[in-house]
Write a structure and sequence with these properties.
By secondary structure, this protein is of the alpha+beta class. The chain has five helices and 19 strands. 18% of the residues lie in helices and 29% in strands. It binds 2-oxoglutaric acid (AKG) and fe (ii) ion (FE2).
Length: 266
Amino acid sequence: MGRRENSDPLFVVVESTRITRSAVAGLMAGRLAALRVPGLLSAGRCQAITAALAAAPMDRYDESRVFPAVAKFGPAINDHRHAGELRDDYWEAARAAEKHWSVLGLPDTPRELCLQAFRPAWPRITAGRRAGREMHVGIVREIDDGLQVHYDDAVREYRGRLLDTEVVAQLAFNIYLRVPPEGGETVLWRRRWQPADEDTRVPGGYGYHESVVDGTQSLTLRPTLGDGLLFDPRNYHTVRPASGGRRISIGCFVGLTDDGLLALWS
Ligand SMILES: O=C(O)CCC(=O)C(=O)O
Ligand SMILES: [Fe+2]
């Protein structure tokens, strides 16, 4: 897409061979829209993970809310949320996922895969803590049929307190472990939630009708195998349906907390 007259020059995607401190800070400051890291994970490592996961029990997000369906391995906070609190079954699901992963014979845990990507840029990184307990980090998702247009904002979703420390800014991080030959694009819009958007909610869903972003500047990113992608998920975003193959990623949320740490959770 060509540069439009009325486009925001700060809503841009940058590419880098690794995650940099300046890009993390720039995304959180609103100086960038997305960071793409081609080849963050080698094709061999991606294949080893997806091959091992073929033997692992995948489940799905709550299908009464998440349609089209999304298969996953590991808990997602939003599947265990009730009235702005995290239900206790999140912790049981986290323990079960860790146990199942530990017998896959892979060298790294999902948590390590996520932490490793950020350590060179931001050594003060950790798993987020809630009531003293370490959050699960690293959810594997198979999003073949696309997502609803939605935003993610832990501050809004968890009444300002998901973690024991305050989340000052939040990013979404994904590594693409398997990509379809066509489709599966991630689309980001330069727009945050506004109260009137509730009029465009998908009934029963987690997202909004696409009309919520009508006329808004957007970026369409087509992940290739092993790419890392970082963006501010408070901006509306979606995933387009994949065609001719599966779209599998591992990812987490990344918070900058009031103690200056990066804290991760899924
Ligand atoms: O898979 C993607 O590219 C984005 C998925 C998403 O909605 C998120 O990570 O918040
Ligand atoms: Fe999201």
